[in-house]
């Protein structure tokens, strides 16, 4: 049982930190960016993943503080890299309560102010299993999109609202939950996976596969024309300085700027069909010249 006092002390001591796990372009294996995972390094030495503390943080009223901490740390860590490589984009998982209330818009403005990071360099992820209220969340996400923030639907297919979210909320990117990926190449391969990929293609959504751990999974997803993948098959999570070096090495190996390593073109907000979950994450994906969805 995590108490309110423990959260208060953890915020004061800045015990919440983030690490970055690279994402690759499936077509050629090049580095496309990274997902940022929040962890709680407790005073007693225990390292807690987000599914161990976020629900309690919401219950005790500290979820906003953790959200703000993740945004501030991500911007602080990656601002130099984002300014140097305008093709890098960060997608941050936003709690449903912040989307419903619209609070996140003011937080984003304040966090990005003076950093040199463009709005289009910050993606907003909403989690499919969270309690989104359709009308206010649609308003918030539409306003965010007008400012240039792309919208990604995380953990797709794990809850009861997948198709409703696609129909009612603006969306540019669909993230395949690892539960669909893990069965690839086994007797437990999920027949729904191919249908989800086909649906995303018809809706002109880009696809990110999470939890890729084997060559068989990577090969299947590449042949299915999934755009991006992340997981231990490619790289472990790393600190910001190591990730920055990782990006520089990737650019050096190809002889191209990072903005040329992939071409992610998002469709226009008015053509879209259109929640903090187990992970409170940010994800970096490459797009050319940091342009807003076109």
TrEMBL record:
<dbReference type="InterPro" id="IPR050706">
    <property type="entry name" value="Cyclic-di-GMP_PDE-like"/>
</dbReference>
<dbReference type="InterPro" id="IPR001633">
    <property type="entry name" value="EAL_dom"/>
</dbReference>
<feature type="domain" description="EAL">
    <location>
        <begin position="1"/>
        <end position="251"/>
    </location>
</feature>
<dbReference type="GO" id="GO:0071111">
    <property type="term" value="F:cyclic-guanylate-specific phosphodiesterase activity"/>
</dbReference>
<dbReference type="InterPro" id="IPR035919">
    <property type="entry name" value="EAL_sf"/>
</dbReference>
<protein>
    <submittedName>
        <fullName>EAL domain-containing protein</fullName>
    </submittedName>
</protein>
<dbReference type="Pfam" id="PF00563">
    <property type="entry name" value="EAL"/>
</dbReference>
């Amino acid at each position: 049982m995590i108490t309110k006092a423990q959260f208060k002390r953890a915020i004061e001591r800045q015990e919440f930190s983030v690490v970055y796990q690279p994402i690759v372009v499936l077509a050629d294996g090049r580095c496309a960016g990274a997902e940022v995972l929040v962890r709680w390094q407790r005073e007693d030495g225990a390292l807690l993943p987000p599914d161990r503390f976020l629900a309690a943080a919401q219950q005790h009223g500290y979820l906003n503080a953790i959200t703000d901490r993740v945004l501030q740390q991500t911007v602080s860590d990656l601002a130099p890299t984002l300014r140097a490589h305008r093709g890098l984009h960060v997608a941050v998982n936003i709690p449903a309560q912040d989307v419903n209330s619209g609070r996140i818009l003011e937080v984003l403005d304040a966090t990005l102010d003076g950093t040199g990071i463009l709005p289009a360099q910050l993606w907003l992820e909403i989690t499919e299993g969270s309690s989104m209220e359709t009308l206010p969340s649609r308003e918030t996400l539409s306003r965010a999109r007008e400012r240039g923030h792309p919208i990604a639907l995380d953990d797709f297919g794990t809850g009861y609202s997948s198709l409703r979210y696609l129909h009612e909320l603006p969306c540019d990117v669909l993230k395949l939950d690892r539960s669909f990926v893990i069965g690839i190449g086994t007797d437990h391969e999920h027949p729904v996976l191919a249908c989800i990929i086909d649906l995303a293609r018809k809706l002109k959504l880009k696809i990110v596969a999470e939890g890729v751990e084997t060559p068989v999974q990577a090969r299947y997803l590449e042949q299915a024309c999934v755009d991006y993948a992340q997981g231990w098959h490619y790289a472990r999570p790393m600190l910001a300085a190591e990730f920055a070096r990782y990006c520089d090495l990737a650019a050096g190996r190809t002889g191209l700027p990072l903005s040329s390593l992939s071409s992610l073109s998002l469709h226009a907000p008015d053509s879209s069909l259109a929640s903090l979950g187990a992970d409170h994450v940010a994800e970096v994906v490459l797009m050319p010249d940091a342009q807003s969805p076109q």
